[in-house]
Every structure is written in C-alpha cells, then in structure tokens.
Amino acid sequence: MTVDTSNLHHDLHFVSSKGARPPISVNSNLYLFAISCTTATDARPSYHVTPELNWMNDPQRPFFLGEEWHMCYLFNADFNEANPNAGGGTEWYHVTSTDLIHWTRRGVAIEKYKPNQNGIYLGDIETGSAVIDTYNTAGFGLNAVIALVT
C-alpha cells in the first residue's frame, strides 16, 4: 500500500498557527510530524479541543448539523487539583466548529445531577454518544439530536 503524503505538510502548516516542522521520513511510506504548541505555556495542543480550566476526557464523535460540526466531551468543572479523588462529577460540554480546527464553546449540554424533562435525576453523566435522527425514527422530530448517556 502506498500513502500519498504530498499534501500532509501543507495541511499541518495550515492547522498550526506556529507552523509545522518539516516531516521526518522514517521510510518511503511512513512520515512523522510534530506540531508546535500555540499557547503561552506551550503545554496545550495547537488544534485539539481543550477546556480553558479543569479537565476533560472522552470526546464524543462529532456530528454535522445545520452549518456546524458539534461535539461533546466529558467535563468536570468541580475538579479539585489539591484532592483529585474528591471527584465532582462530569457532564457533557458542547463545542461547535465550521472547520474542525477552530472551536466555539457553547456551554454544558447535559448537566450533572439535574432532572430531565420527566423529572428523573440523571446523576453523574458519563460516556455515551449522540446521533442525528434524519428520518424521525424515534419520534422526536426530523433531525432531532438523540444523546445516549450512561
């Protein structure tokens, strides 16, 4: 199998505001790339989604709806660095993008410890996924976003 890498360096340069370093050729079919960090601390990635504070994990599969990409990830706003075992619980945080590179924070999509529309408390929101019901199969309306959480 041959992989065309002729456009990769250019694409990486586009997504990294500090620019990409030249690729390192391991062999004729494998190249390694390094992306420079773009924040003052040089501790955050150039174009991956990261929260401004606290921690995140378990990014969900992005989906396209309207004119934007939507993605949720687990976010713990109550995380205590001094006592990481204190918990605090996670909820789904929502971000959107038109190019999958630049993301806009939209806030919490599914809150922890809040009742849903039927009055059932959801507790600590954990992993899951979201899908678009393009045919109204579930009966929530055409193109309804259905989140499946545990």
Automatic annotation (TrEMBL):
Gene3D superfamilies: Glycosyl hydrolase domain, family 43. GO terms for cellular component: cytoplasm. GO terms for molecular function: sucrose alpha-glucosidase activity. GO terms for biological process: sucrose catabolic process. It comes from the Eukaryota. The keyword Calcium does not apply. Residues 48-135 form the Glycosyl hydrolase family 32 N-terminal domain. Pfam families: Glyco_hydro_32N (PF00251). Keywords: Glycosidase, Hydrolase. Belongs to the glycosyl hydrolase 32 family. This is Glycosyl hydrolase family 32 N-terminal domain-containing protein.
